[in-house]
Amino acid sequence: MKMKKALSLIVGTTLVTTALAGCGASKDDGKTSGSGGETPAVSKISVALGTGNLPYVTGSRDINNDKYVKKLEELSGTDLNLQLIPHENYSQNITLMFASGELPELLQTKGINTQEVAPAIDAGNLQPLDELIDKYGPNLKKYIPKESWDSARVSKDGKIYGIPQENPILNTTVTYIRQDWLDKLGLKAPKTVEEYIEVLRAFRDNDPNGNGKKDEIPFSARSKFSFGTAFFGAYDVHPKLWKLVDGQLTPNFIRPEMKDALKLHRQLYEEKLLDNEFLVMTGKDWDNKIKGTGVVGMWAHDASYPDKWENDVKASVPSAKVSVINSPVGPSGKPGGVDNINSTVSDYVWVIPKSAKNAEQIIKFLDWFYDPANKAKDDFLEFGLEGDNFTMDNGAVKYNYPKTAEETSAEFMHQSWLAFTGPKKHLTDESFIKNRPGGDKILASLAIAKTEGIKDDGLGMPVMPTLQSRPELNYDGLWLEFASKVITGKESVDKFDDFVNDWKKRGGDQLIKEATEWYNKTQK
């Protein structure tokens, strides 16, 4: 219980703490079809992981007694003590957790090379996993590709410190639009930046939601430009990414093309085509604008579940239609994108702190997700609980595809949130996708995702020494401050060159030098 109390103290009331699941807790008696590998002896594991802002999770009164969690425990032979980390300020909460010195036995991170986790490697606070994987993780070793193990988010200096989640979709973020608004106004899906601006103006001026009020928000994003980088992508200057320029690995936010991108964002903000609250927008408030009140015309998010988005918006606006469209094409005429073309490592990487005494059991638990002989496990993760989410018909699964926002959130619970690692069959099984309501919409979204996405020459780069000591040199430091002032009209974009010179003097030149050395050593 010591770890649990520490987590509560670290993040105060923002951290959802849940009761420790006792050894004698009753198990849900829902059953999945088929049989699989042997169920191991019960292993107790404390786990800290993010809520993902998933309504099913955030709305749970006791996540450790949830029926899906109980089934996962039953099938895997574990007794999990899940500690929820709020989606808001996720990285800051991880930092505070490490600072406290009180850690769970299994921790979900965004990678071992992130600013909040990298110092823990150097301090020896995380366990190297190579020998443990060799002894207790045969499936992890066999099915996780070498590219994932070699990722800087997973390994450092030839040692493995993390177990990655699988990423079958390399470009995961696409542009969403209210198709019913386009239809009502007689508009076609925009393609170029100029066409996008005209559509957004029409959303602002022509009352597409039909309530007689000028309350539409044409385009919305979250703080730090989260899910709001499509127009930067059009100019090939996504602010988080790096590009090799004249032999130097350079952050996009200091490249000359950024100046035009900032001018455009100033225009979008000034004309109220871009949500004027986006700079302080939390995920919860953003969700509410799109889903709760249904006043947003365009946004960006995961390519794999447009059906979920449509169901969520329909919950408040029954007539709503949501489509995925190609992201804006900029001056180059080439496809842009909202985000970078990623690696085979998905959003999260699991690490085991040195303080954990049961690393062997943890590796066995994670290895279980890749067990090819365990059909019961596969059926549960893909289809959920028999009787609740599916029935059996002559030995075949008859899946109850979700029809409401609540059902969709529950589906995401067993398919993604509880799938700590392992293959994501719900994203790769084309027949499963096609047969669901909105399946054609999902396949169309995934097809669009394959046509766009931004190349990041710094993909997999660890946190450079200069960035560790001068975090303000990152995109969410000095640049974000400058960009926010330009976009809101408090600073002229003509000061861009001055900003770049100042950034370089503060350590940016040294950061570029270190990044270039890393690139030349590892990427050539």
From TrEMBL:
Gene3D superfamilies: Periplasmic binding protein-like II. PANTHER family: ARABINOSE-BINDING PROTEIN-RELATED, POLYGALACTURONAN_RHAMNOGALACTURONAN-BINDING PROTEIN YTCQ. InterPro entries: Bact_solute-bd_prot1, SBP. SUPFAM superfamilies: Periplasmic binding protein-like II (SSF53850). PROSITE patterns: PROKAR_LIPOPROTEIN. Keywords: Cell membrane, Lipoprotein, Membrane, Palmitate, Signal. It comes from the Bacteria. It holds the Pfam family SBP_bac_1. This is ABC transporter substrate-binding protein. CDD domains: PBP2_AlgQ_like_1. It comes from Paenibacillus contaminans. Residues 1-21 form the signal peptide.
